[in-house]
Design goal:
Layout lengths: L5 H7 L3 E4 L13 H11 L5 H14 L16 H13 L5 E5 L7 H18 L2 E5 L3 H7 L2 E6 L2 E7 H6 L4 H8 L50 E4 L2 E3 L14
Parallel strand pairs: 1-2, 2-3
Antiparallel strand pairs: 4-5, 5-7, 6-7
Length: 251
C-alpha cells in the first residue's frame, strides 16, 4: 500500500473499510443518513446522483434498517441503528476487508448480539473478511474463525478460535482466558493472573517483551525475542518455553 501512487491508493481504499468503536462520533451529525451513505458512493464513482437513493435503500435493507432511516440524522437513531449505518457505509464500496475496532463495546448487551449476528450473516452474504479488534473474549469466540493474540503490538500466538480457547500455549493467552469471569462461585483459578502493568510502548523490554510479567520466564527470555513458530498443527506461538512440556502440565 505504501508504494501506491495517489491515484492507485484512491482506488485501493475502496477495498479496505473501517467500522469504528463509537458509531456516533464516526458519523457526521449535520448530515442525514441518506447523505452519509450516498457520499461514499459518489466520491468513489460507484453511482450517479440519480441512482444514489436506490443504492442507499439497498444498503439499508442489507443491514436490516427501514428506508425511512435515510431521512434521519444520526442523533435520532439508537446506538444499534447507528452502528448498522456505519456497517452499511463500510459495505457501500464492496470492500474485500472491513476492520472493525471494538464494534459492539459501546452498545447494550442485547444490541451487541444483534450486531454480531448481522456481521456473521454479512460475511456469508457478501464474501467479506472481517478483521475484528476486541478485548471482549466472548465476542472473539462468537465471531472469529482465526485469532491472533497481541501483546505490546506484537502477535504472540495465532491459531483457529477452537484451538486458542481449547489449548492456549502462550502464558499471556492462558492468563487472559483464565481471567474470564465464570458463573461458578466454587471455581478456583488454576492459573495466576498476570502481575504488574505493561511497559510503555516507547520502552519495550529487551528479549521477549512479556518476560517482566511472565510467571515462567527463563534467562533466555530476557535476551532474545522469540519468533512465531509452530507449537502444534496450524498453531503458531512466540514463546521459548512452549517446547518444555513439563511447564504446561495443566493443558
Amino acid at each position: 500500500i505504501l508504494k501506491l501512487s495517489p491515484a492507485e491508493l484512491r482506488k485501493a481504499r475502496g477495498h479496505f473499510q473501517m467500522v469504528y468503536q463509537d458509531p456516533y462520533s464516526s458519523l457526521n451529525p449535520r448530515m442525514r443518513v441518506g447523505q452519509i451513505l450516498a457520499e461514499a458512493l459518489l466520491v468513489h464513482g460507484k453511482c450517479t446522483r440519480n441512482m444514489a437513493d436506490a443504492q442507499v435503500e439497498q444498503l439499508l435493507q442489507r443491514v436490516e434498517l427501514p428506508a425511512v432511516v435515510a431521512t434521519r440524522y444520526p442523533a435520532h437513531l439508537s446506538g444499534g441503528q447507528r452502528q448498522r449505518v456505519v456497517i452499511a457505509r463500510a459495505l457501500a464500496l464492496g470492500p474485500r476487508v472491513i476492520v472493525a475496532d471494538e464494534p459492539v463495546s459501546a452498545l447494550d448487551v442485547s444490541v451487541q448480539a444483534q450486531i454480531l449476528n448481522l456481521m456473521q450473516d454479512l460475511q456469508e452474504e457478501v464474501d467479506v473478511t472481517w478483521v475484528c479488534i476486541s478485548h471482549n473474549l466472548g465476542v472473539v469466540r462468537q465471531i472469529a474463525d482465526r485469532v491472533a493474540v497481541m501483546y505490546l503490538g506484537r502477535i504472540v500466538e495465532e491459531a483457529s478460535v477452537t484451538r486458542i480457547f481449547a489449548q492456549p500455549l502462550h502464558p499471556y493467552t492462558r492468563a487472559l482466558l483464565a481471567s474470564v469471569p465464570q458463573p461458578d462461585p466454587r471455581r478456583v483459578m488454576d492459573i495466576p493472573p498476570v502481575q504488574g502493568d505493561p511497559p510503555a510502548a516507547t520502552n519495550i523490554p529487551p528479549g521477549c517483551r512479556f518476560h517482566p510479567r511472565c510467571p515462567i520466564a527463563r534467562s533466555l527470555c530476557t535476551r532474545e525475542d522469540p519468533a512465531l513458530a509452530f507449537g502444534a498443527t496450524d498453531h503458531e506461538v512466540a514463546c521459548w518455553a512452549v517446547t518444555d512440556t513439563t511447564r504446561w502440565s495443566a493443558s
